[in-house]
Design brief:
Helix 2 packs antiparallel against helix 3 (about 45-80). The chain has helices at about 5-10, 15-40, 45-80. The protein has one domain (about 15-80). The chain is mostly helical. It has three helices and no strands. The chain starts with a helix and ends in an 8-residue tail after the last helix.
């Protein structure tokens, strides 16, 4: 299967990739909030490091998921079949 064929088979999944983007952005900002919480509200300790690490993992996963969603939305828009759109 060529790359363009794969893109055309994914053409009906825009909502799926928009969901990836939305969930990823939410995870990213939740992770960033945890990192800020750890730095501002928790005294220096192992607990602070654990919360910051959890925030970093959450933010990283969210950034990856949002990036995948955004890149796929862009690719689908670039290679959309011109006969199907107004």
């Amino acid at each position: 299967m060529s790359w363009r064929q794969w893109v055309s088979t994914q053409a009906g999944n825009e909502r799926r990739y928009l969901t990836f983007f939305s969930i990823g952005a939410t995870l990213f900002f939740a992770g960033a909030g945890l990192i800020l919480l750890a730095n501002k509200r928790i005294a220096p300790s192992f607990e602070q490091e654990a919360v910051a690490m959890t925030g970093l993992l959450c933010a990283s996963a969210g950034a990856l998921l949002a990036s995948i969603g955004y890149i796929m939305l862009t690719i689908l828009r670039l290679f959309r079949d011109p006969t199907n759109h107004d």
